[in-house]
Design a protein that fits this description.
The structure holds 2 protein chains of 2 kinds.
Chain A lengths: L4 H6 L2 E3 L5 E5 L9 H14 L5 E2 L5 E7 L3 H10 L15 E2 L13 H12 L10 E4 L13 E11 L9 H5 L5 E3 L4 E3 L9 H5 L5 E11 L2 E2 L3 E2 L11 H18 L6 H8 L1 H13 L1
Parallel strand pairs in A: 5-6, 6-7
Antiparallel strand pairs in A: 1-2, 2-4, 3-4, 7-10, 8-9, 11-12
Helix pairs in contact in A: 7-9, 8-9
Chain B lengths: L7 E4 L7 H11 L6 E7 L2 H12 L3 E7 L4 E7 L4
Parallel strand pairs in B: 1-2
Antiparallel strand pairs in B: 2-4, 3-4
Classes of the chains: A alpha+beta, B alpha+beta.
Chain lengths: ~290, ~80
């Protein structure tokens, strides 16, 4: 009987160099697994693989050396262990994330719940080619948002609160963009220089900055055969509804304009960045 | 117009990140609650980052003074655990 390698690959079984062996890709959201999931994965690797796992470049786990004959048994054991299989092929892939504001002092947004929401909404959705979401909590960009087809970066919109400020001098030095000037009676912010990094608010000893978290989006990043940085052109987004409206529109644009097996970036370039930007701006406005 | 008196000083201009913060943290750990410490640090990365780290440790920063010689004094009130 012919083996449907494509179906296997779509379900996360990646064909190896070694005949009839597969590296099984697991579903991981935002780089988080529970200890119990890790124990289940370890058991399956020992029983059905060769006792090692591979950590992928996008925060997933693969169990190599799974034999074709064991595919169904492995799937059953994974399910019992609370682990799902990942995906490959032309669809929305693993949603990656840094630890974000729940754990990291630098984080401006809570990345993991957002990764789960994005994954629940889009993971595995069929598209003309692969599509990657990545979420990074702040301007330090540990998760490299712009490498992704759609990158999300956390930032703050800041506003100086004169009544709480003592003019201590910390924020104007914390700012790396030279956007803050301190006089002998006030703080002046050059909004054209502000990158929403939030370092002023994070550093302020007197909480004299009102800071609102938001999402900075980048589109069309790709770091494989073609290397290009995702483009940022929308203002920082405050509302999650707006974020999803724009993401929906981006995927719809990809579906509508891309040829089969064409990456998002290439489709945008062929359709024209101006057209793409207009559609995203329309979605942003709602 | 200073509303405080400096009790202790530490100079972290002779070390680089991450030892800058470590040296300041160790100096603060040796002090009693409420003690005012002046931390002398270099312009650039130390003055960008050390104040925030001191804040995150829970101490009260009072002032950042420019010494106009490429260094700054960060005035901190020790806050215990």
């Amino acid at each position: 009987m012919a083996v449907d390698y494509k179906a296997l690959k779509n379900g996360g079984f990646m064909r190896q160099v070694q005949k009839n062996h597969f590296s099984l890709r697991l579903k991981v959201i935002g780089g988080n697994l529970t200890a119990d999931q890790l124990i289940a994965i370890a058991g399956i690797s020992k029983k059905f693989g060769d006792g090692h796992v591979h950590l992928t470049s996008r925060q997933s786990v693969e169990i190599p050396f799974v034999k074709l004959a064991d595919v169904d048994a492995v799937k059953a054991e994974l399910e019992a262990g609370g682990v799902d299989t990942g995906v490959c092929g032309p669809r929305v892939r693993t949603v990656t994330a840094c630890q974000g504001s729940a754990i990291c002092p630098s984080g401006c947004i809570d990345t993991y719940p957002l990764a789960v929401e994005i994954s629940d909404r889009y993971f595995g959705r069929e598209l003309p080619h692969k599509f990657k979401f990545g979420i990074t909590g702040c301007m330090n960009n540990c998760l490299k948002a712009e490498e992704n087809d759609l990158g999300v970066k956390g930032g703050y919109t800041v506003e100086w609160l004169s009544e709480l400020c003592t003019l201590c001098g910390v924020c104007s030095k914390a700012c790396r963009e030279d956007a803050i000037t301190q006089t002998d009676k006030e703080i002046l912010v050059d909004q054209t220089k502000c990158t929403n990094c939030g370092r002023c608010a994070k550093a302020c000893p007197f909480d004299a900055w009102k800071s609102e978290p938001g999402y900075i989006l980048s589109f069309g990043g790709t770091f494989g055969n073609l290397i290009a940085r995702g483009e940022q052109f929308l203002p920082i987004i405050r509302e999650k509804d707006t974020l999803f409206r724009v993401a929906d529109a981006a995927l719809a644009f990809f579906d509508q304009h891309a040829k089969p097996s064409e990456r998002f970036r290439v489709a945008i370039e062929r359709a024209g960045w101006d057209t793409f930007k207009q559609e995203m701006e329309a979605a942003y406005r709602g | 117009m200073a509303e405080w008196t400096i009790d202790e000083t530490v100079d972290i201009t002779d070390v680089v990140c991450p030892v800058t913060f470590v040296k300041a943290k160790v100096a603060l750990e040796e002090l009693d609650d409420g003690t005012i410490l002046s931390i002398r640090m270099n312009d650039g990365e130390p003055v960008q980052n050390v104040p925030r780290s001191i804040k995150e440790e829970g101490h009260q920063i009072l002032k950042l003074e420019d010494n106009h010689d490429g260094t700054y004094n960060l005035i901190v009130r020790k806050v215990g655990d």
